[in-house]
Write a structure and sequence with these properties.
Elements lengths: L7 H5 L4 H7 L6 E3 L12 H9 L9 E5 L2 E2 L2 H4 E5 L5 E5 L1 H9 L3 E4 L7 H14 L3 E9 L13 E8 L2 E9 L16 H7 L3 E7 L4 E4 L3 E7 L3 E9 L4 H11 L16 H20 L3 H13 L16 E4 L4 E3 L5 E4 L5 E2 L3 E2 L10 E2 L2 H11 L3 E3 H7 L5 H14 L2 E3 L2
Antiparallel strand pairs: 1-11, 2-3, 2-6, 4-5, 6-7, 7-13, 8-11, 8-13, 9-10, 9-12, 14-20, 14-21, 15-16, 16-19, 17-18
Length: 416
């Protein structure tokens, strides 16, 4: 009832996580062929239709319609009405929406990652592995009609082909350090810029049901359905960048009297230079403060897991969700030894998955605790409810104590 639908390791298999992070992440695309039924428990046309029947949740921002490389304006398929928040806004006119779809238009349902249990599980899988916020988009399109022009995305994109086939063109061109910041997204540049920047076709890949495609952030691409109808999910990982953290710091600067001082007069050139140096020195002190590392990690944690929650009402006992730091630990198959790895797995060459303390050398667990650890290490995240469901504890306080101990050594970390 509470368990993970698909793990990250299952999604990229037979590619290993170690190989992916060393050879692909942030560097080059990865195409993984999978069995047609691979995503049977993840999403389907029936679930897409059920989401569309939830008419109150859709607007021109959450439901987009595109055709021949152009997004249709809201007035082409929406009417002005009252939103679910009881405010005036654009609501889809589903009669006109059908008319556009019959002409070959593509439809995108934005931010569906919390709308079904399986999609919520998929979101939490990627949030746990990448430590970053995740959005999921559902795309349906029709044979031979393109939806979006060649573009780059600001986050890492993982495509799960649910049904039908779609041909993807991946280009040589990449936007350096593409980021979800003002002036840096694909929509901030004119079409001719993208045409000049995308370069030649690097790979042409046809995705079939069960396939997965990873597209690094900034990589130019476009796609068109190559079967009568195509349905896929795009999992977009939005990596936080330095600009995001600096924005947070900037919000607190007025608490420092220096940043409330009047700037020098426009003609006081000498004073301006001295003031600039004073500001530079103070900013350096703020950034170099020892507690700033903890502030940075708290910021990343808050952003990555802001959409994660667990409930077990009407029961009022605390229910938690934990990410599993499986890249940093191994569990012996022959005995009950849990060991922290010395060779920390990394996300490319830029950042480790975490800097929490590990077990160091090794620790021998009791049979019950070892079973819980093995079970956890098979997952990217788990709920305390799922653990209790898989291993109903004779002594609940003992399982609670193990969860605390596992956090202390860094095997798991609370997401919510």
């Amino acid at each position: 009832m509470y368990d993970q639908v698909l793990t990250f390791r299952q999604l990229i298999a037979p590619t290993t996580a170690a190989s992916f992070f060393k050879n692909n992440f942030g560097q080059r695309p990865l195409h993984v062929e999978g069995a047609g039924e691979r995503y049977a428990d993840l999403f389907s046309w029936a679930e897409l239709n059920e989401l569309l029947r939830m008419t109150a949740i859709w607007s021109n921002k959450s439901l987009e319609v595109s055709m021949n490389g152009r997004r249709l304006p809201a007035e082409a398929y929406c009417y002005e009405g009252t939103t679910r928040d009881n405010e005036r806004g654009w609501r889809p006119d589903f009669v006109r929406l059908h008319q556009h779809l019959r002409k070959g238009a593509s439809m995108t349902l934005n931010y569906v990652g919390r709308l079904t249990p399986a999609l919520r599980s998929l979101s939490q899988t990627f949030e746990a592995v990448f430590g970053a916020p995740v959005n999921i988009f559902a795309f349906c399109s029709w044979e031979g009609v393109g939806a979006y022009p060649s573009h780059f995305d600001t986050g890492s994109v993982f495509v799960c082909q649910i049904d039908g086939c779609k041909t993807w063109n991946l280009y040589e061109g990449r936007m350096p350090n593409a980021a979800h910041s003002p002036g840096c997204s694909a929509g901030d540049f004119p079409p001719d810029f993208h045409e000049r920047s995308k370069g030649k076709v690097l790979q042409r890949i046809e995705l079939r049901p069960g396939d997965l495609l990873y597209v690094p952030h900034g990589q130019y691409h476009d796609a068109v359905a190559s079967s009568q109808a195509s349905l896929h999910l795009s999992i977009a990982v939005r990596h936080m960048v330095a600009h995001d953290f600096v924005n947070v710091l900037a919000a607190d600067l007025p608490k420092d009297p220096l940043f409330r001082e009047h700037l020098p007069h426009i003609d006081a050139l000498g004073a301006a230079e001295g003031y600039r140096k004073q500001l530079s020195a103070r900013l350096g002190e703020i950034i170099e403060a020892p507690q700033m590392s903890d502030e940075l990690r708290r910021f990343l944690h808050a952003k990555a897991y802001e959409g994660v929650a667990e409930f077990d009402l009407p029961h009022l006992a605390e229910a938690r969700i934990y990410r599993v730091r499986w890249m940093h630990f191994t569990m012996s198959a022959a005995d009950n030894v849990l060991q922290g790895r010395d060779d920390r797995a990394t996300l490319g060459d830029r950042a480790t998955l975490g800097d929490r303390a590990t077990l160091g050398d090794r620790a021998t667990l009791g049979d019950e605790e070892a079973a819980w650890a093995r079970w956890a290490l098979e997952r990217d995240y788990f709920s305390s409810l799922a653990l209790a469901e898989a291993y109903p504890p004779a002594q609940p306080e003992r399982q609670a104590a193990w969860l605390r101990d596992a956090q202390t050594v860094g095997l798991i970390e609370a997401m919510a």
